Amino acid sequence: MKELVEVIAKSLVDNPDSVEVTETEKRNTIVLELKVAESDMGKVIGRQGRIAKAIRSVLKAAGTKNDKRVILDIV
């Protein structure tokens, strides 16, 4: 999951070196924290949160395959 978010985020931002993803797992829930540069925040979130919502949809599909619940926090 962590690698998936990294690849997606790095392809969206201008400064891919600043992308950091932290993964914590509790029971059947995976919490992913995505950190990007301040200037790239809008590119990851998108207009009205559309890109963030799309990333969460992809993660939800991947999590369902593994019987896990996935939460993405953009910090």
Q: How is this structure best summarized?
A:
With 75 residues, the protein is an alpha+beta fold. It has helices spanning 2-12, 41-45, 50-65; strands spanning 20-26, 29-35, 69-74.
Structural Rg: 12 Å
Morphology call: globular
* Element pattern in H and E: HEEHHE
What percentage of the residues does DSSP assign to strands (E)?
25-35%
**Mean residue pLDDT:** 94
User: What separation lies between the terminal Cα atoms?
Assistant: 17 Å
SSE class:
alpha+beta
Helix content: 40-55%
Alpha plus pi helix count: 3
Describe the sheet with the most strands: 3 strands, mixed
The poorly predicted ranges are: none
Number of strands: 3
Strand arrangement across the biggest beta sheet:
1-2-3
Outline the structure in words:
This protein is of the alpha+beta class and about 80 residues long. The chain has a domain at about 1-20 and about 40-65. The chain contains three helices and three strands, in the order αββααβ. The chain has helices at about 1-10, 40-45, 50-65, and strands spanning about 20-25, 30-35, 70-75. The chain has a three-stranded mixed sheet with strand order 1-2-3. Strand 1 (about 20-25) and strand 2 (about 30-35) form a beta hairpin. The protein is globular, with a radius of gyration of 12 Å. The two termini are about 15 Å apart. The model has no long low-confidence stretch (mean pLDDT about 95).
